[in-house]
Design goal:
By secondary structure, this protein is of the alpha/beta class. It has helices at 12-24, 35-44, 61-70, 88-96, 109-119, and strands at 4-8, 28-32, 49-53, 79-83, 101-104.
């Protein structure tokens, strides 16, 4: 059974890029474009890991992370934050809310793959 990854980012091209690279590496990948879509997806299918953008329209990635960590069903799913916000305070906030790793954009797909493997 392949490892399932949910990619949450409001940039369709970026979701497609991550989807391509993770699929090529053997992962099963689903992508959604908003925090609300992510929570809806998680009600029907639980991934093994979530790649989560912070700057999402509506429900942002920090709120999604907080919501997931409060729910016993999703609390243990590893989360890799992926965002353009690179200030120390942003990184610390993401990690304190429960993210397992934090990667800033622009990023290398190879580095993202390595971090996903490390977190899993």
């Amino acid at each position: 059974m392949r490892t399932r990854v949910l990619v949450v980012d409001d940039e369709p091209d970026l979701v497609e890029l991550i989807h391509y690279n993770l699929t090529k590496a053997g992962y099963e990948v689903a992508g959604v474009l908003s925090g609300e879509e992510a929570l809806a997806h998680l009600r029907s299918s639980l991934p093994d890991l979530i790649v989560l953008d912070v700057l999402l329209p509506g429900l942002d990635g920090l709120e999604v992370c907080k919501t997931l960590r409060r729910n016993p069903t999703t609390a243990g799913i590893p989360i890799v934050m992926l965002t353009a916000r690179s200030e120390d305070a942003d990184v610390v906030a993401g990690l304190e809310l429960g993210a397992d790793d934090y990667l800033t954009k622009p990023f290398s797909p190879r580095v993202l793959l390595a971090r996903i493997k490390a977190v899993l």
